[in-house]
Design a protein that fits this description.
Blueprint: H1 15-25, H2 36-39, E1 52-53, H3 55-68, H4 71-74, E2 78-80, E3 97-103, E4 112-114, E5 118-124, E6 128-132, E7 135-139, E8 144-147, E9 153-157, E10 164-170, H5 172-177, E11 183-185, H6 200-205, E12 226-227, H7 229-240, E13 251-254, E14 269-275, E15 284-286, E16 290-296, E17 298-303, E18 306-311, E19 315-318, E20 324-328, E21 335-341, H8 343-348, E22 354-356, E23 366-367
Parallel strand pairs: 18-23
Antiparallel strand pairs: 1-19, 2-3, 3-10, 4-11, 5-8, 5-10, 6-7, 6-9, 8-12, 13-14, 14-21, 15-22, 16-19, 16-21, 17-18, 17-20
């Protein structure tokens, strides 16, 4: 790919050069100028495609998997979300994976550990729980739970509960790209009762502005494995009463590690944002890949010039460096968007960049 710009590769092919390239190939080598403009683009060129996965379209297919495979056979009964531009790595966007996991009441999946960081966001059902390194957490709709990399974890639904569906989010594609992924099944299949009180991590670390005096947590991820919906929504509502919010994100709050104030895990960040009735954000773009799940309400997003209408439990993605804006379709109800992203990686490597859409010109939104 040639470019007629000073500082960019612009070498014409000649018979002599072609023969030279063939000679280099014999030694598993090549001339940089033949690929430089491709591998060093002027700006990020995401292979990911803005995509909306409608829950109403997928739900029946997710439930059908209950009849077709057992958790024992499947390991995890999950329908994963496949971005058209990232099918080769089973990613929903960028280097992030997403899937919808379903479990019957009374089922328990085997305990396992892996190098990938993971999270769950509960979509429907009652009685779900997760056990992380011996700490059991009960889960309700819109609760957000962490299973950090390297931790033993298992999921289940109490016998007295109902069929549950939740979104799984992981950085499997990233860890695989780094060639650093390990997976292990617990030697006893399930973790033994550790004696910790149920929901002890949230009870210990979930008090705003307070921290246990004898705390000794030193791991790189948050000790607060579960972030409940009710206090999250309450915090958003209180913050909305104290600020006009961001013109680009509305009322946006990050889930944080209570020890550091930073991201909840080393490779995955998460947030919840509120769009007030009738609110429409301004368009901007930034590096980093984002997966959104509609936690409450309905609305729309315009991503790379295409309009996507969404409602509660729908999932959509925003690829890196794609222009995007969001709007609340209701004149009376809030809309809330849960999001997980790769910001810890982007920021940690010094690669974060953000740009507001200019006042001059515009772009045409195309209905999805």
């Amino acid at each position: 790919m040639r470019e007629d710009t000073i500082g960019r590769a612009n070498v014409e092919d000649t018979p002599e050069l072609k023969a030279y390239y063939q000679d280099l190939e014999k030694f598993e080598a090549g001339a940089l100028w033949t690929v430089a403009n491709k591998i060093e683009p002027w700006q990020p060129q995401s292979a990911s495609v803005p995509t909306l996965w409608r829950y109403n379209d997928l739900r029946a297919h997710v439930l059908r998997s209950l009849e077709l495979v057992s958790p024992e056979k499947a390991g995890r009964r999950v329908i994963y979300l496949n971005n058209p531009g990232r099918r080769d790595v089973s990613a929903a966007v960028g280097w992030l994976y997403s899937g919808l996991q379903v479990m019957h009441a009374g089922e328990v999946a085997s305990a396992h550990a892996h190098s990938a960081s993971a999270l769950r966001f509960i979509m429907e059902g009652t009685g779900a729980y997760t056990v992380v390194d011996g700490h059991k957490m009960t889960l309700g709709a819109r609760d957000f739970v962490l299973t950090p990399n390297g931790t033993w974890h298992e999921h289940g639904v109490d016998a007295g509960g109902s069929t549950c569906i939740w979104q799984d989010g992981l950085d499997i594609p990233l860890v695989n790209a780094l060639e650093a992924n390990f997976f292990a099944v617990h030697p006893k299949i399930q973790q033994e009762d550790s004696g910790h009180p149920v929901d002890d991590m949230t009870k210990t670390w979930g008090n705003p502005g307070l921290r246990p005096a004898d705390s000794k947590w030193s791991k790189g991820y948050s000790p607060m494995f579960k972030y409940e919906w009710e206090p999250t929504y309450e915090s958003l509502s209180k913050y909305a009463a104290a600020t006009d919010g961001s013109p680009f994100d509305g009322i946006l709050m990050n889930y944080v590690n209570p020890i550091t104030g930073g991201h909840v895990m080393q490779t995955i960040g998460a947030s919840m944002q509120m769009l007030r009735p009738g609110e429409r954000t301004k368009s901007h773009r930034h590096t980093g890949s984002y997966i959104y799940q509609v936690a409450k309400g309905s609305g729309y997003s315009i991503i790379a010039g295409k309009r996507f209408e969404w409602q509660e439990r729908d999932i959509f993605c925003v690829p890196s460096w794609a222009w995007h804006e969001h709007g609340n379709a209701s004149a009376s109800e809030d809309a809330c968007l849960f999001c997980f992203n790769d910001l810890p990686v982007i920021e940690g490597l010094g690669l974060y960049r953000e740009e507001a859409y200019g006042d001059n010109g515009g772009y045409q939104a195309i209905a999805a």
